[in-house]
Design goal:
heterodimer, A: 540 residues, mainly alpha, MetI-like fold, 3 domains, 22 helices, globular, disordered N terminus, B: 267 residues, alpha/beta, Rossmann fold, 2 domains, three-stranded antiparallel sheet, 9 strands, disordered C terminus
Chain lengths: 540, 267
């Protein structure tokens, strides 16, 4: 909270329900809630869920950890090392791309398209493809971990470079210096706060990439340990792994946040979740070029990837091969019915979870804003959970919910819920005090406050979260299907993987990526239109 | 002229804020009497508690000591009775609403959303015809302030509270809005309290100017302004106007010196 002395002195507390709980210090309140949750968890695990393989009591988790601590710490260390390498390479690549996009503006759109495409890849299915190049070692998890951070860091760094004050850039220009000088002397420094906000998100994302990479046949690491434990129904083991992954990922998130605050104490917390959408250029020709050029670049990258690594044709499929598999070879109708049938199932369960997650998050944010003591008790937990790579906890959800279609829905809902909740609530708290004062001066009802202030101010955050949640939801869904449910396109991919059917694998990856990119752009277009309609001129 | 406003009596009001372990007394022993339909201007150095006083009268905050009475009602009762109109330095318009619907917001909040005539009248009164469908982002600063003023007036409040509503505007626009404010006030007779930094503005529009001391704020001088109404811009050029401005200015400077005396001689 960076309220200045002035505003702190003049702004009264939010309209509270006058509850006595409002006076309990937040730390005490959230600790009490945490302890209550642990006790309830222990109780449920020992009674209702005893012997059901669904829920391990916290005490059993601790005992299990200490009993096999050598095994756990060895694998945790391995995965953390993998994630650290991925974090390093991914962020270096992302920053280099952001620098190129800033210095050479006409490259920006194409680089952006490639980075978005990478973000939309179904990571779980590209692991086997990467493994063709890297062999059985640790390179695939490192590569996936790197790919997992590229998008957010690229967007954050770009935002940071763009946030450089225009007047300072004009000063550089007025001395006759060019883009490079402006970049060195102004933009780099100005980008630090936004960059750190991006790196903070990248820490859990790198861990996610590493573990997902290990899901598909590594020799060591938490990912492969999880897959084995799932197969053997070792409930305690899965819970231990989930808890360890949570602690390490959250630790990375907090450590980088602290480093960022230490390096730039003057800057307020930035939310990279609310990244603005890029604008389309006016004119049909420009728009067409803007659409086709990035697609062409993505295809060039695809061919370049196959060519550079010299993958054998049996494994390597070009865009033309994928097209042929789907539309021209004799088995094409069969392939189409398998792929699109499974895709239908995946999209149905995913969109259900997506909508439930978003709507639930918005509703919870509104409840938190209207009932302050509830917010103080639960929000710290929500903030902590947001920083967890939920995918790492997928096995826990699989155990708890079971292996049906609902599992996918539940995982997608949980994944979209926490970031959206935190983003929407933060946006609501930034409702200008002046507007709230006007509402208060007419003794407005809670409903009127929600309708006129809190809901509209949270719309940009909601839409930005919804946009980012499209690819992450599909990732969550495919991981759940791959590991557990046996439904949807994730199951098609795992079958193809075990049969070495690289045709189906490539087709699935291509189709899923295209679906995610289209979904992302549909939400982005809706976002742009809504913001322009709501408040023309101030949406960006 | 119909006098329909509520009288305001503020007696011995004090307000202290807790600030990072420290206590800041914003107001202490603050007295103010505004007759029904009166126009009072509050003036004082930065941070003297002018805005705090206004927020207390608006029922947006409660005093630690002293009483505020308006025609037998407390500020909170006035607020709950929806008899107050406010406009602040920041116009605080809803960016997703148009000029018309921003003004109508106040009517919606008091449950009279269908009073379109009142909205149309005010759009005309503040000179925004032709901009009814514009959003705040498409308006100039002065126009946004006019929307905020129109919103504060549309419910026909018994008490109008203005906290430097023209603070961020250029001198010309400011003068124009002061003329309009005076015109509206003359037509409606709403009790009005205006917080301002500008001495000429206070002298130009108010019946009485209250000069406040630095923190903790209290009223240290009262100047009754006897100029006949309607006041016009010619008044600004007269010697008696300048004399009045000088007098208020002198009080203001004396008030700043008084802090030192208060420390040695707490009377």
């Amino acid at each position: 909270m960076s309220a200045t002395a002035e505003t702190a002195a003049t702004a009264p507390a939010r309209p509270a329900g006058g509850s006595r709980l409002d006076r309990v210090p937040p730390r005490v309140l959230s600790s009490a809630v945490g302890i209550a949750v642990l006790l309830l968890w222990e109780l449920l695990a020992r009674t209702v869920y005893a012997g059901s393989y669904r829920l391990s009591p916290p005490t059993a988790v601790v005992v299990e950890f200490f009993e096999f601590r050598g095994l756990y710490l060895r694998n945790l260390w391995h995965s953390t090392k993998t994630a650290a390498w991925g974090f390093l390479w991914g962020n270096l690549a992302a920053m280099a791309l952001a620098v190129a996009s800033t210095l050479v503006p006409w490259l920006r759109r194409s680089i952006g398209a490639v980075v978005l495409t990478v973000f939309c890849l179904p990571f779980i299915a590209i692991a086997p493809i990467l493994r063709l190049i890297t062999g059985p070692g640790n390179a695939t998890p490192i590569a996936l971990s790197a790919l997992a951070v590229v998008f957010t860091t690229y967007v954050a760094a770009l935002l940071g470079f763009d946030l450089a004050p225009g007047s300072a850039l004009d000063v550089v220009r007025s001395y006759g210096r060019g883009r490079l000088t402006a970049f060195r002397s102004v933009r780099v420094r100005a980008s630090v706060p936004a960059l750190f906000a991006g790196l903070q998100i990248a820490a859990p994302a790198a861990f996610l990439g590493a573990v997902v990479g290990e899901f598909t046949g590594a020799h060591r690491g938490l990912g492969i340990l999880t897959v084995r434990a799932l197969g053997a129904l070792q409930t305690d083991r899965i819970w231990v792994i989930a808890v360890m992954a949570t602690i390490v990922a959250t630790g990375g998130y907090l450590a980088i946040g602290a480093l960022g605050r230490y390096l730039c104490p003057w800057s307020p917390a930035l939310d990279v979740g609310a990244v603005p959408v890029p604008h389309a250029e006016p004119g049909l020709l420009n728009r067409l070029a803007g659409l086709l050029a990035p697609i062409a670049v993505v295809f060039v990258f695809w061919y370049a990837f196959l060519w550079v690594f010299g993958i054998e044709p049996f494994f390597a499929k070009t865009p033309v091969d994928v097209w042929a598999e789907l539309f021209s070879v004799s088995e094409a109708p069969e392939t189409r019915s398998i792929i699109f049938g499974a895709l239908g199932t995946t999209l149905w369960t995913t969109s259900l979870g997506y909508v439930v997650g978003l709507v639930g998050a918005l509703a919870s944010a509104l409840v938190f804003i209207l009932v302050p003591w509830l917010e103080r008790a639960l929000m710290p937990i929500a903030v902590a959970l947001r920083s967890i790579p939920i995918i790492v906890t997928t096995p826990v959800i699989i155990l708890f919910v079971g292996r049906g279609l609902l599992t996918t829905t539940a995982i997608v809902a949980v994944m979209s819920f926490f970031p959206t909740l935190v983003n929407c609530y933060t946006a609501m708290t930034r409702t200008p005090e002046g507007i709230l004062d006007v509402l208060r001066s007419y003794d407005a009802t809670s409903t009127a406050n929600v309708r006129n202030a809190y809901l509209p101010t949270s719309v940009p955050a909601l839409l930005a979260s919804a946009r980012i949640a499209v690819p992450t939801s599909l990732l969550g869904a495919t991981v759940a299907e791959w590991l557990a449910t046996g439904d949807g396109i994730g199951a098609v991919m795992v079958t193809a993987f075990t049969r070495n059917d690289f045709k189906i694998l490539w087709v699935s990856v291509a189709v899923l990526t295209i679906v995610a990119v289209i979904g992302y752009w549909l939400v982005a277009a809706f976002e742009l239109r809504t913001l322009e309609r709501m408040a023309p001129g101030i949406s960006r | 002229m119909a006098r329909r406003g509520a009288p305001v009596d503020v007696v011995g009001v004090g307000r202290t804020f807790a600030l990072a372990g420290d206590e800041v007394t914003a107001l202490s022993g603050f007295d103010m009497h505004v007759p029904a339909g009166g126009f009072i201007a509050l003036i004082g150095p930065s941070g003297c508690g002018k805005s705090t006083a206004l927020r207390l009268v608006a029922g947006l905050d409660t005093p630690d000591e002293g009483t505020i009475d308006m025609d037998g009602s407390s500020p909170d009762e006035m607020r709950r009775g929806q008899r107050i109109g406010v406009a602040f330095q920041d116009p605080s318009l809803l960016p997703w609403r148009t000029v018309t619907t921003n003004i109508r917001l106040a009517l919606e909040l008091v449950g009279r959303r269908h009073d379109t005539k009142a909205v149309d009248e005010l759009v005309e009164l503040v000179g925004l015809q032709g901009f009814e469908k514009a959003r705040p982002s498409q308006l100039s600063g002065g126009m946004r302030q006019r929307v905020a003023i129109a919103r504060s007036l549309v419910t026909k409040p018994d008490l109008l509270l203005l906290d430097e509503p023209f603070g961020a505007l250029d001198a010309l626009t400011r003068q124009q809005l002061n003329d309009e404010l005076q015109r509206i006030w003359t037509a409606r007779g709403t009790t009005t309290i205006l917080v301002t930094h500008s001495i000429p503005e206070a002298v130009y529009v108010a019946d009485e100017v209250l000069v406040m001391s630095p923190r903790p704020g209290s009223v240290v001088a009262r100047h009754t302004i006897g100029f006949e109404r309607p006041r016009t811009r010619e008044l600004l050029l007269t010697d008696r106007f300048h004399a009045e401005v000088e007098a208020v200015s002198a009080s203001l400077h004396r008030s700043e010196g008084q802090v030192v005396q208060l420390d040695t001689d707490p009377s």
